[in-house]
Write a structure and sequence with these properties.
Blueprint: E1 6-12, H1 18-30, E2 36-42, H2 48-52, E3 56-64, E4 67-68, H3 70-84, E5 91-98, H4 103-116, E6 119-120, E7 125-128, H5 133-152
Length: 155
């Protein structure tokens, strides 16, 4: 029996490197799952077809001024109207690198993603300050869990 490869799209924006550290750990875990293709897109360069061609979505952003980064907002601005009517119902996971508490970024992203008709996979991974060993371990485990759930058709 042939298993089809599913695409997990990681849309990310990182300025200080903290979000990138979390993305790298997430990717390390996700890449352990053999039937999942991970595609990485910088939020500033994302286009509607990125969403149309994936099976699940991970959005990773720093918290800036109590909300998502301008780069992530740009991604939403560039893709929303083109995919809204398609009702893709993509499963999504949030990763937030927070200088404060991350809740503003989480709330605003969830509000926008509800408009897309996307469905949240699990609780957002919010890491406050510089990601340390346990934070990176959590991101890595999340990557493997999301990819496994996608491979098994759970999400």
């Amino acid at each position: 029996m042939m298993t089809s490869i599913k695409t997990l799209l990681l849309v990310k924006h990182s300025k200080t490197g903290n979000t990138q550290l979390l993305c790298d750990a997430f990717l390390e875990g996700a890449r352990r799952v053999s039937n999942i293709r991970v595609r990485i897109v910088d939020a500033l360069h994302g286009v509607p077809s990125d969403l149309m061609e994936c099976s699940a979505l991970v959005l990773a952003t720093p918290e800036n001024f109590g909300t998502m980064s301008g780069g992530m907002k740009h991604f939403f601005d560039q893709t929303y109207y083109e995919v809204e009517a398609l009702q893709l119902a993509l499963p999504y996971q949030l990763i937030i690198s927070a200088g404060n508490d991350g809740t503003g970024a989480e709330r605003e992203m969830q509000r926008i993603l509800t408009g897309y008709k996307f469905r949240q996979i699990g609780t957002a991974l919010i890491v406050r300050g510089r990601p340390l060993g346990p934070d990176l371990d959590a991101a890595e485990e999340l990557g493997e869990s999301v990819a496994t759930a996608l491979e098994l058709g759970i999400i």
